[in-house]
């Protein structure tokens, strides 16, 4: 995503540490909705502290974001994602159209249940770059168990087929289709079937992430291992095999790939959000550095409880997005994350009893610590 980790020497000019505040957002992750028609066991939305009213992004918030795009010269893409189902927003297609009219690439993460034929045709016609659909199992019963509703797998696959067919009908190469899957003990089998499903629907990638446990019940469901683990190491590669598949969807023959996560804690860390210059904007317009810090919640890092507070640097209804992005506090935070100047609590012998670690702070004085972030490990991932 980015070439190499920044070091402090990159910032020293004439003996002084200098950081330029530029409106250089490359990707906006825009949460059109916090509502969802599914009820997945591993979804963070049931565990927000305090619970958040679930609803759609207002016209005002969307217009404030869209209105700032002309002042973001490095912007490459708006990705409609976050914690909710974007296609439940009654104006989702209209919003995509408005972004496309501004010349912005748009991609989308969806649970796939809302892709009827008109929606599939519209996504193709609007030139959406990529649609990534969550499919946590290719076995209908397992899928229903994970997603909290029965009978949805055929509907999700049908949505993917509809986009494939609409692309063929319109002789379009877009949107590229992707499947995203979250690995846990509950679904660690039959991954060959998922690769086959990806091939059948014409997907060009299968992105695999591990699960981030938000409850005590979920903490034993993880498959990745920590630094003190001495037993047999889990290997996601062995589940999926080394396989890819020919992607024959358009005029070009491509090769579909399985994109695997890291399966164990390592010492090297870098943030995909900050390194990629992404901004995460909630349905209410709050601007956060990443998905991990968008909402206050509990999570479990290798079985250890941690409370994470929301980190917002402003709201687009009060300040323009480019001003929030270039504010001193946000620039300082991103620079610190780029340097990754945090202690690694997971490696520390005190972590199980440390109050700093329990509140996502650290003994170096940071009120927000990225030290044991599993996104920065490549263990938890998003499209
Ligand atoms: S589909 Fe996504 S947003 Fe909806 S309940 Fe499942 S994890 Fe949560
Ligand atoms: S914050 Fe606590 S757990 Fe983390 S490195 Fe410092 S003492 Fe160790
Ligand atoms: S390292 Fe983790 S918590 Fe820190 S900004 Fe990146 S994703 Fe967010």
Task: List strands and helices in order, with pairings.
Blueprint: E1 12-13, E2 16-17, E3 27-30, H1 59-68, E4 77-80, H2 92-101, E5 105-110, H3 117-125, E6 130-134, H4 140-147, H5 153-169, E7 176-183, H6 191-201, E8 205-210, H7 236-240, E9 245-247, E10 254-259, H8 272-275, E11 278-281, E12 287-288, E13 297-301, E14 304-308, H9 321-325, H10 328-339, H11 355-358
Parallel strand pairs: 3-4, 3-11, 4-5, 5-6, 6-7, 7-8, 8-10
Antiparallel strand pairs: 1-2, 9-10, 11-12, 13-14
The chain binds iron/sulfur cluster (3 copies).
Structure notes:
This protein has 383 residues and is of the alpha/beta class. It contains 11 helices and 14 strands. It has helices at residues 59-68, 92-101, 117-125, 140-147, 153-169, 191-201, 236-240, 272-275, 321-325, 328-339, 355-358; strands spanning 12-13, 16-17, 27-30, 77-80, 105-110, 130-134, 176-183, 205-210, 245-247, 254-259, 278-281, 287-288, 297-301, 304-308. A 10-stranded mixed β-sheet has the order 9-10-8-7-6-5-4-3-11-12. The protein has a two-stranded antiparallel sheet with strand order 1-2. β1 (12-13) and β2 form a beta hairpin. α3 crosses α5. The longest helix is centred in the middle third of the chain and has 17 residues, at 153-169. The N and C termini lie close together (12 Å). The relative contact order is 0.15. The model has no long low-confidence stretch (mean pLDDT 92). The site of one iron/sulfur cluster (SF4) has 12 residues, from α8.
């Amino acid at each position: 995503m980015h070439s190499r980790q920044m070091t402090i020497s990159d910032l020293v000019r004439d003996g002084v540490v200098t950081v330029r505040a530029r409106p250089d957002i490359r990707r906006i992750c825009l949460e059109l909705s916090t509502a969802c028609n599914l009820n997945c066991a591993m979804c963070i939305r049931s565990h927000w502290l305090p619970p958040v009213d679930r609803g759609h992004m207002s016209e005002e918030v969307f217009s404030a974001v869209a209105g700032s795009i002309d002042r973001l010269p490095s912007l490459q893409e708006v990705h409609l994602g976050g914690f909710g189902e974007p296609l439940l927003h009654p104006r989702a297609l209209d919003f995509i159209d408005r972004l496309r009219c501004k010349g912005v690439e748009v991609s989308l993460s969806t649970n796939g249940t809302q892709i009827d034929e008109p929606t599939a045709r519209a996504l193709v016609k609007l030139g959406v770059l990529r649609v990534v659909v969550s499919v946590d199992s290719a076995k209908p019963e397992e899928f229903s168990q994970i997603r909290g509703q029965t009978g949805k797998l055929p509907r999700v696959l049908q949505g993917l087929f509809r986009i494939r067919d609409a692309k063929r009908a319109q002789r379009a190469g877009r949107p590229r289709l992707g499947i995203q899957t979250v690995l846990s003990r509950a679904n660690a089998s039959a991954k060959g079937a998922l690769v086959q499903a990806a091939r059948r629907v014409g997907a060009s990638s299968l992105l695999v992430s591990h699960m981030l446990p938000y409850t005590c019940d979920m903490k034993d469901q993880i498959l990745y291992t920590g630094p003190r683990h001495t037993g047999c190491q889990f290997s996601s590669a062995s589940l999926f095999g080394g396989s890819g598949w020919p992607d024959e969807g358009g005029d070009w023959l491509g090769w579909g790939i399985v994109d695997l996560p890291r399966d164990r804690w390592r010492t090297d860390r870098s943030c995909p959000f900050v390194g990629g210059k992404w901004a995460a904007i909630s349905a209410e317009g709050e601007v956060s550095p990443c998905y991990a810090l968008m909402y206050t919640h509990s999570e479990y890092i290798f079985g250890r409880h941690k409370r994470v507070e929301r980190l917002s640097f402003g709201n687009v209804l009060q300040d323009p997005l480019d001003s929030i992005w270039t504010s001193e506090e946000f620039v300082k935070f991103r620079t610190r994350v780029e340097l990754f100047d945090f202690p690694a609590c997971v490696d520390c012998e005190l972590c199980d009893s440390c109050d700093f670690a329990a509140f996502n702070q650290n003994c170096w004085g940071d009120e927000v610590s990225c030290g044991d972030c599993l996104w920065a490990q490549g263990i938890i991932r998003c499209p």
